[in-house]
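Today's session is about reading a structure prediction critically. Students often jump straight to the picture, but the first step is always the sequence itself: look for stretches that repeat, for charged clusters, for runs of hydrophobic residues. Only then move on to the predicted structure, which in these notes is written as discrete structure tokens rather than atom positions. Here is the chain we will use throughout the hour.
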Amino acid sequence: MRKLLIFLLALALLAGCSSDPKPEAAKPEAAKTEPKKPENDFESGRAAFQRMYVSARGWAADVQPVRLESRPTKQDPKDGKAAVWAATFVSASRQNIRTYTWSGIEGDEKGVTPGNADYYSPANASTRPFDLNFLKMDSTQALETAQKKGGEAILKKEPETPLKYMLFFDQTKGRLLWRVVYGGSVSDSKLRILVNATTGEFVAKEK
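Below is the predicted structure for this chain, in token form.
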């Protein structure tokens, strides 16, 4: 009996030594992360203008605006906002004119960037400043008006058409105007609509 027990014990030990070790559980693969897409910022004309105006005031306390315009990019939404805006200001005390740029493009110089100052002459009609009190309507509101005057049909037919917004003072009639340009520039535009920047009313169709 004793010999039988010893024999069974030996068999059990032999089986334990010859058994294959259990394979380790496979480690889960690390989750693949997609590269982060650029998150560009878009602003309406008045919002971007305000940012640049604050910076310009740091340059000269008596700055006055001359013009404002967007610089179209492929990412711009069709809602009156843009990723890049440029505003030109003059300072009578310094006798200088200077353009500031606001950019919301990821990877670019985000924020406000001042340009070089040039000589300014009050006698130059093309660079006469306007009163800020004239600016009541934003570029978003100007687009709404322009859409009703032919712009909607253009974007429906060609959705990729870039939009450009320009703010300037009409010296002949003493009014501040928004020009909504359907196209990358005035020269190759499909349509240009003028909107009163104080009242929001339609003024004229340029093309």
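Discussion point for the tutorial: The longest strand covers residues 111-119.
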